[in-house]
């Protein structure tokens, strides 16, 4: 990308940045580097939204930095993806948009601390984002004609209600049941006997009892679901999946592994947002019938949740086409030796060796972009299109310059996108604080966290490194956290040989919702590298005792 073809748009986030960060000063600082720089109260305010789109078109921008809110803000706010759809329509590739989280990484945890150090940190976060969009190339977008078929997983009152809506809309419905029958508790069944009769007698319904889900791949609108049913394997082509798993802990566990949907602390499937997206997950084609809480006995809650999930499915599949950006691992064929390390590492069966000589090839329908294959490759022939390794090393270079010559402990907070970074983000939302020297950097997964990057951070002068990953059983990529811990154990031995104390590297195994614990763990880590005492003695272990 040539300088002058990217834009930097800064949001005041409803005024939450103004007490800590001078956005006008930042805009002036970058005015000579970008083709367009602007400060907005909110990107979504109708008039300002139009002005932003005009700037993109008028300057023919091919890359953007959206500075202000957290990346999760755009997932949580209702129809937040509309901004990115409009940018794509104006020629900005989805892989050339980077979100710089000044709100929760600077403004909130350092509220009312306006200082030059905060401004310096803001500039460094923006500089790292510029390097990243420079390194990220354009990615392909797959156009899918949505299949008019839906898999409803689980049998309960809500699943019958959702299935009824979908059948009435003209879809095929596959009802996947772990049990041998479709019986419901009598107290619930009496409310929906007509619905059950309508569903079970419908010609477009197929029921699979005593079924287990084995595999899942594809894009929203075009999935293939493989199940084991009645001693035979069945492949179901569907456009969407509805998970209705009230009181089905075994199927919840399977759904986490197969569909990569988060599980809450009380063992239910997590929705994208409890307020604005209670039926949606991070996968556009997978929907959840939000489970009734244990203390709720009102069946009306189940009906409302089923209505909402079915409505969202219909909204998705009634389109003529769905566009899906392909964010995968990529292979540099000139470096690939065909050793097969990537094949052995991939938990999603997305990699195979093919050709003569045999080289690594990726199935984009299966690849989740976790980066396990990247760290496993001995020839450095693999990389992630949406988060290149070089961008991580560049960010460490940039962050290492923070507060040079000042008595501030600089700690690299290298966090996975699944739970690690979300946990820090939620800590800010909860009003928690941390030292200004904590420099946040997102990796795709613990599986992408390269030990060379950790060593590089120490070589560049960081006082400590925190690797924040998903806790046990929570990894969005199944074993990315486990692979990271195995590599880190080997690294600790190397650090000791280099005279770097073990207290300077820690793995925080965490959950995205544990913001309080995240903030406490950071405080303990800083105490450990300073050799200070805190309540309960000198802290030398992070959460989980790793």
Describe this structure as you would to a colleague:
With 546 residues, this protein is of the alpha/beta class. It folds into 4 domains: 1-139, 3-Layer(aba) Sandwich (Rossmann fold); 144-322, FAD/NAD(P)-binding domain, CATH 3.50.50; 326-368, no CATH class; 387-546, Rossmann fold, CATH 3.40.50. 35% of the residues lie in helices and 21% in strands. It has 17 helices and 22 strands. The chain has helices spanning 23-30, 46-58, 73-76, 82-89, 102-107, 116-135, 157-168, 186-200, 249-259, 300-317, 341-345, 372-376, 389-399, 420-429, 451-459, 480-497, 515-530, and strands spanning 6-11, 36-40, 63-67, 97-100, 141-144, 149-153, 172-176, 205-208, 211-219, 222-229, 232-238, 240-243, 286-288, 322-325, 329-331, 351-354, 359-362, 382-384, 411-416, 438-443, 464-470, 505-510. Strands 8-7-6-12-13 form a 5-stranded parallel sheet, covered by helices on one side. A hairpin with a 2-residue loop joins strand 9 (211-219) and strand 10 (222-229). Helix 7 packs parallel to helix 8 (186-200), helix 7 runs parallel beside helix 10 (300-317) and helix 14 packs across helix 17. The longest helix is centred in the N-terminal third of the chain and has 20 residues, at 116-135. The two termini are 42 Å apart. The model is unreliable at 533-546 (pLDDT under 50).
